[in-house]
Amino acid sequence: MLARMTSEPEQQIGVGTQDAFQRLWTPHRMAYIQGENKPTGPGADDGCPFCTIPDKSDEDGLIIARGQHVYAVLNLYPYTSGHLMSVPFRHVADYTELRADETAELAEFTKAAMAALRTASGAHGFNIGMNQGSVAGAGIAAHLHQHVVPRWGGDTNFMPIVATTRVLPQLLADTRQLLADVWPLS
Fold first, then answer.
1. Confidence tier at 61 by pLDDT (50, 70, 90)
2. What is the pTM of this model?
3. Which residues are the active-site residues?
């Protein structure tokens, strides 16, 4: 072990100037960066992924639970393991456009998401919110969605800061199954 610590770093072909850093490749993020599967316009028929996900099986769509007006789905580009979204089935952009029954179910799904994440992964806290409009950071502004991001003490590290990378310890399909199994509104 000591000899390895004092030896030269292993050369990595194709990473640019050799330095002492190892590389953690996250090529799946390139689809997000390049805007793959982003809607071509504001309408439901303009390739809105939140309108097409419900047509898939729960496993293929990463859907955790379905309600009458809302469904819960894992974020395909999560900030942390278990990062999910509550999404109305109806294609609506603004929170104020929701009907009372949609608003109530969205709130219930947020509570259910918190309970499921606490049960499945022992989340210590949550970031919950909506980005309303592209200027507010909404990646898909035309279809309302509420993020539920589980957090744990000490869950942040240097990776997002120096490498613009998040380390996720579990495959999305495995996370989806874990949460679906403990979803309280089944």
1. very high
2. 0.71
3. 145
